[in-house]
Specification:
By secondary structure, this protein is mainly α. The chain has helices spanning about 5-10, 25-40, 55-70, 75-90, 90-110, 110-125, 125-145, 145-165, 170-185, 190-200, 205-230, 240-250, 260-270, 275-295, 295-300, 305-315, 325-330, 340-355, 360-370, 375-390, 395-415, 420-430, 440-450, 455, 460-475; strands at about 315-320, 330.
Length: about 500
């Protein structure tokens, strides 16, 4: 992910410690939160407390954490301060989410997404679709340094194309996310790829080269698995491709000129234009293209072209095509469709802020560090800390910053070069954030791609394989780099 200004804040963040708080007390809010979420997911179909059950449960978890804090002499002002810092840190991602919602709506009514589906159906067959999706997402993410941008552009299109071919949406989203996070990790433009070595004390390109040792095997295995899945997939949509193409062509004015806008957005991002400006330009230009190329559709949806565009930006849009599968595909929720995801992020930040404010995050990480008596134990504790913070703090940056600060000296004491820590942070902190529904990354990807985390979890192969790969290398002492006289820290 690459959202300018976000990681700089996280890098300078002060970690709250509380000597009054015991490890058991620090775990109380976590255990209660996990129990409530488990009940909601497995026994209440995600609706124990209504449509916003997960959000309410996160807030209840924050209440339990605050009670633990009160009993351990933590002032409410301290907790509020950390909540505010957390909320401030996600202001930009929330604005981006709103723009992504607007982008989806305007790119639909302008014909951009239908054009992507139309040409994609002709170019990508089911036999190569999934591995091709991994590669396409990886290339875009390396170029832009952002898994978020990748999902908001080519990711949406690939889900649409694959769904039309009859491929399960969870598989497609897993392929897109796997490729996007591989590219995000390996791109020097990515915030997390810059943040991890900064925390560990190594330089960017040493970090990228060393990270390739575990990242490349993980993506190769991912491509092999998706290739096998593609060859064996029962893509029922293949027999209906001609009908789909004809329906799209009849409904929309399809032309290659529509690709000017997505290409322009990617170019703006490559030239390091601020994400809000790049996505905003994509929304504005799509509105212009809609009036030029799709005026009939705009007038079909309402009496005013301007009113149709406003609805596409802010509320829901549904375009009837006469084909049931395409009707579902050619619908968008606009900014309003992102509210559930945004509320989830806000509630997660409240819980994470209180947990940080009472010193629970630092206490849990220190407990993990205390049991790291061997080199493998140190790697395993780092992985567990990153995973735990993605679960508890709901933020991938905290999952890099806190373990990075806490474990840095321990790696030095074991004689390990700092790139060992930076690689482990990325292999376990960056990539697993998207596997957690209430984490900012999981909520974002699920909201943008329109596929639940539970649907794509098993198919986000690269993301859950990466921590296992880094632990495997540590267990068998594969390419574990030790400090030398030139790299030792004073």
């Amino acid at each position: 992910m690459s959202e300018e200004g976000y990681s700089e804040y996280r890098e300078d963040e002060h970690i709250v410690e509380n000597k009054e708080l015991s490890f058991g007390e620090a775990l109380i809010p976590v255990v209660l939160l996990m129990l409530m979420l488990a009940y909601n997911i497995f026994f209440a179909d995600g609706a124990a407390l209504g449509d916003y059950s997960n959000q309410i449960i996160l807030l209840l978890g924050g209440v339990f954490a605050a009670i633990v804090g009160f009993f351990n002499k933590v002032s409410i002002n301290t907790m509020i301060k950390e909540i505010w810092e957390n909320l401030r840190s996600v202001f930009l991602p929330i604005m981006i989410l709103f723009l992504v919602g607007a982008l989806a709506g305007t790119w639909l009514v302008s014909g951009i997404i239908p054009a992507m589906v139309y040409y994609g159906l002709q170019a990508l067959s089911p036999s190569i679709f999934l591995p091709a999706s991994v590669i396409i997402a990886a290339l875009i993410s390396i170029a832009t340094g952002s898994s978020w941008t990748t999902s908001a552009t080519v990711g949406i299109a690939l889900v649409g194309i694959g769904t039309a071919l009859g491929i399960p949406a969870g598989m497609i989203a897993g392929a897109v996310i796997s490729g996007a996070y591989f590219g995000d990790k390996m791109s020097p433009l990515s915030d997390t790829t810059n943040l991890a070595p900064a925390m560990a004390g190594t330089d960017l390109f040493t970090h990228i080269r060393y990270m390739a040792l575990t990242t490349v095997p993980s993506i190769v295995i991912t491509l092999i698995v998706f290739s096998i899945l593609s060859l064996n997939i029962d893509a029922t949509g293949t027999t209906d491709v001609d009908n789909l193409l004809q329906t799209i062509e009849t409904t929309f004015n399809i032309t290659p000129y529509l690709f000017i806008i997505p290409v322009l957005v990617v170019v703006l991002i490559l030239f390091k234009t601020k994400p809000l400006i790049a996505l905003g330009a994509g929304v504005g230009l799509a509105g212009v293209f809609a009036m030029i190329f799709q005026s009939e559709i705009l007038l079909q949806l309402s009496d005013s072209e301007t009113m149709t565009l406003m609805r596409a930006i802010f509320t829901d849009t549904q375009i009837a095509t006469g084909n049931e599968s395409l009707n579902e595909l050619f619908s968008a929720g606009g900014m309003e469709g992102m509210l559930w995801t945004i509320f989830l992020i806000i509630c997660a930040m409240v819980f994470g802020g209180i947990m940080d404010g009472i010193g629970a995050l630092a206490r849990i990480t220190k407990a993990l560090l205390a049991v790291a008596t061997s080199i493998f134990g140190l790697f395993a504790s780092t992985v567990a800390s990153c995973l735990g913070l993605n679960l508890i703090a709901s933020d991938q940056y905290l999952a890099l910053v806190i373990p990075g600060k806490m474990f840095k000296k321990a790696y030095e004491d074991k004689g390990l070069a700092p790139e060992n820590l930076s690689r482990t942070l990325e292999d376990s902190g960056t990539v697993t954030s998207v596997l957690i529904p209430w984490n900012t990354c999981g909520a974002y990807q699920s909201g943008v791609l329109g596929v639940g985390v539970s649907e794509y979890f098993a198919y986000a192969i690269f993301n859950w394989l990466s921590p296992f790969t880094t632990l495997l290398f540590a267990a068998f002492n594969i390419k574990i780099r030790m400090l030398t006289s030139s790299t030792s820290k004073s």
